[in-house]
Amino acid sequence: MIRTFIKNSSIYLVSNGVTKVIGLAFFAYIARVLTVEQMGQFGMLNVLLTLLVVVMTLQIHAGYTRYYLDLTEAERPTFEFSTVNALVLWNVGMGAALFCLRPALEALVVPMGAVLCGLVLSLPLASAMTALFGSKLRLENRALTAGVLNVAQLLVYVGGTVALLRLGVAPLSAIFGGMLLQNAFVIVWYVSDMGRWRFAISFASLRRSVIFSALIVPAALGAYLSILTGKYIVGWRLGIESVGIYEASSKVAMIIQTIMQPLLQATSPIVYGQYRQPDFPPRYYMLLHIHMAAVLALVVAFSLFSREAVHVVVGSQYLAHAHLVFPFVMAAVLMHMTDFYVNNVHLSQKTQYITLVELVTGTVSAGVTYLLIARAGFHGAIVALLFSYGLRCLMYVGFANRLFPKLRISLTQTASYLGLCSLILIGHFYLRELPLAARLVLALAESTLLLGAFLWWYRVHPRQLLSLVRPG
Asked: pLDDT by residue (tens digit) across 55-98?
């Protein structure tokens, strides 16, 4: 199991490493093409797109991922074609209805012409198809194909966006047009992988998946309410340029999640495929500790070199706001650990508790964000973000333990770990003006010390780590 994890993680790490390097370079290019105000508009359109993805896809990819491996090989094609066909029909109808309501959408978000609106409304179906294909490849342990797909689709996005910009297309339309070209490329690949198309829907095949997914929709809306409320209220109360600063700062810090994505991608098929085995818990905790150690190393790196990260990723126009990276790094830590813990609730098949957590934390986030922005402005939004993310993480730990005690998570361990990350960030905040050479020495010393302490605390002997990569 661990060797499969390491092999797939390595493939995902290489492919994601390539895509993230290209993606970071491209985002750095985009951040310099867009003004701060246009970055704010980009952020607000992403808020709209994120919510549309939930409403227009009904989170069907979640049910697909959950039940795909439970089916026999003979049952999977019917399940897959039914999922895709139902998705297409729903999205065409919803997209047409929402396009007719374009004035209302513009009043809620930002003004956009018919072309940009059409691009945004076409993306939920395309992104859902991309998510389905990616899930299928990961669940079938076709890591190499998934890795090649990751790199190829990004190259299409970058090439398409740059070509549209060179043709004189408006920056935002070019960016979202590039996204559409990227997803269209994946869809063509997905359809060719599926073989001969079947225009049929088996409701019997979809029943469990649709019920599972539908119960997650309120949860997803609550989650995005928690994640996106701050950005939206910042735009509403403080102006579109403030959204641009918020968007740029969060993009820099959320690179942590991007880097950690390969480990999550390699972990999911192991957890969903082997959780029934009686000897799985020790391997689960080994995976958890690998995630925690990797995130800790990234916290050290991003907090010590925050100014350099801001300069490289979004440009010198945001250097005055480089200190904002620190709280967003903590938000990235909370998000990643929550993504790991939520698997246990999914395994219990009681997704109503996910709905409960997300609606509670989303509602609390909206209220706290509104109050704190009124009192503390921009910084109040960041405090509210951290509060809602922390509450969300701890609630998931509690429900994961209650619903799936086989893989019990230590609340004390979680709180200690988050406290350690917070202390590192606070300490590095006051050291951020040290010369680069001094910070490099400090990073090496801290990484060595923290890794040793981490291995000792969790009783992980170096021989155990070496045994994971030894052949035979």
From this structure: 888 888 788 887 888 888 888 888 888 888 888 888 888 889 99
